[in-house]
Design brief:
It contains 16 helices and eleven strands. By secondary structure, it is an alpha/beta fold. Helix 10 links the parallel strand 4 and strand 5. The chain starts with a helix and ends with a helix.
Length: 479
């Protein structure tokens, strides 16, 4: 009996918990301090063999904490993209501010239930406050409501479901949805999950700046109406993943208002720049949206798993999700209640990492950090455009820009694509930076995205220098 009782005890004494916490904290702070010296692209040598060797049967007996943490920090974490480092200019960075890690530790250790307001009223109010601050910075009306999600994909799904419920009802099959050819692939995936099949998603051509063409949108809408279909939703993108393009949001909003469409702005990457008053003209029309995706794990530098949805008509979002059951407290309407605005009943406490971070830094420091990332991107793009052979295809509309390399010895599109891809790979192989590219139509473009809070002027100077050196070396070795 005593043997079973001992083995069933999963708790620790305060002294044991203190020692375990200090062990983890020491390793984490050492890791963060070493970030500038770690390879931004990660160490992938022999990664397939490592992963195969890691496969194991379920553990029957426990293991000492040190034996678990040692390989985690020395072998496994380093063999990944250096997304938290200052040289991570690939994809769309975030960084993961330390205050959010503290918030997650508090949230997970105290383990309070925040699915319904009554479970933890004061804690849910903190989440409501954080949502409301973002609503205000996006200049949405007080009637708007929203929720924190795991990312942009789930925000898109909820937005499409909300628009479908309000504008299509049961007649889903005739409904058509409109995106630019440069829109994020998660929209089409979310549409399918929300019952909008792929053949009802229309891709609209873009202009020379990779922005949605409103004339093409209007023609496609007219064609679909003539075919007996029911256009119900259009997406604008506030910063595309490939080139950082910002669609003509205001013009799309005009069309949506005239045509009776639900207008969603995908601001997963660029929406948070709207916090900065002097940058709002770059996103003109954003506050007119019916719904908006934000990814605080991008624009607010929070850890991955922090997305957000805002819906102008908060009641429409509540009607989609609100439900009750005999085992639940009665719904109430005075206070924000997460389960009434999203699909999750059991959930973590994503609002704490946002609330604690924003309260700790304050909006002024966040505005300064976002403005700096834009300034760094503009400066770097200007300098990179001076490098012989570099052609700037997409100057930064926000903090992302795209380019390719060409020259006398690179006289075909295939040669230019191969050289541009090699340029990205060579810079990344040097370890200090990580750069990626994107296939846009027939052309492969190199990309630089400045959005990690740890990226500063010295890192962008390194980026310019290494691109210049590798571009020169690459061109000199061409036959």
């Amino acid at each position: 009996m005593n043997d079973h009782s001992d083995r069933a005890n999963l708790d620790f004494t305060p002294a044991q918990m203190q020692a375990m916490g200090e062990n983890v904290l020491r390793r984490v702070t050492s890791h963060l301090a070493a970030l500038p010296d770690l390879p931004s692209g990660g160490d992938y040598a022999g990664i397939e063999e490592l992963c195969r060797a890691m496969r194991e049967a379920p553990p029957e007996a426990g293991a000492p904490l040190d034996t678990l943490l040692d390989p985690l920090f020395s072998e496994w974490i380093p063999r990944s993209f250096g997304t938290s480092g200052p040289g991570y200019l690939a994809y769309i960075p975030g960084g993961g501010v330390y205050t959010a890690a503290l918030a997650d530790f508090i949230s997970n250790a105290t383990n309070r239930y925040t699915g319904v307001w009554k479970g933890a009223p004061a804690l849910v109010q903190l989440e409501a406050n954080a949502l409301d601050w973002l609503r205000e910075w996006m200049q949405f009306p007080e009637t708007a409501r929203g929720l924190f999600t795991t990312g942009g994909s789930m925000a898109m799904f909820n937005a499409i479901a909300c628009a479908r419920e309000k504008l299509l009802g049961a007649d889903i099959r005739r409904g058509t949805l409109y995106v630019s050819s440069q829109a994020h692939h998660s929209i089409t995936k979310a549409a399918k999950l929300a019952g909008i099949a792929h053949d009802r998603v229309r891709e609209i051509d873009v202009d020379g700046d990779y922005r949605m063409r409103v004339d093409a949108l209007e023609r496609t809408l007219a064609d679909d109406r003539a075919a007996g279909l029911n256009p119900f939703m259009v997406f604008s993108t506030a910063g595309t993943t490939n080139t950082g393009a910002v669609d003509p949001i205001d013009a799309v909003a005009d069309i949506a208002a005239r045509e009776g469409l639900w207008h969603h702005v995908d601001g997963a990457y660029g929406g948070c720049f709207h916090m900065v008053p002097e940058l709002r003209p770059l996103l003109r029309g954003l506050p007119r949206a019916d719904s908006l995706t934000l990814d605080p794990h991008k624009g607010l530098f929070l850890p991955y798993g922090t997305g957000m949805l805002l819906v102008r008509d908060g009641e429409a979002l509540r009607l989609l999700h609100s439900s009750t059951a005999g085992y639940l407290p009665d719904n109430q309407t005075e206070f924000y209640d997460p389960a009434q605005y999203g699909p999750d009943l059991s959930r973590g406490f994503p609002g704490l990492r946002v609330w604690l971070t924003l309260k700790f830094y304050g909006a002024a420091r966040y505005r300064a950090a976002l403005a700096e990332k834009r300034e760094l991107a503009v400066w770097a793009a200007q300098e990179i455009a001076k490098i012989p052979g570099i052609v700037m295809d997409a100057p930064p509309q926000l903090s992302l820009f795209a380019f390719h390399i060409e020259g006398a010895q690179l006289d075909t599109l295939a040669a230019q694509n191969a050289a541009t891809r090699t340029l990205m790979e060579r810079v990344t192989a040097r370890g200090k930076l990580m750069l990626t590219g994107a296939q846009v139509g027939d052309r492969f473009l190199g990309r630089v995205c400045v959005l990690s809070f740890r990226t500063r002027r010295v890192d962008m100077e390194t980026c310019v220098q290494q691109l210049a050196e590798e571009a020169a070396a690459l061109q000199s070795t061409r036959p």
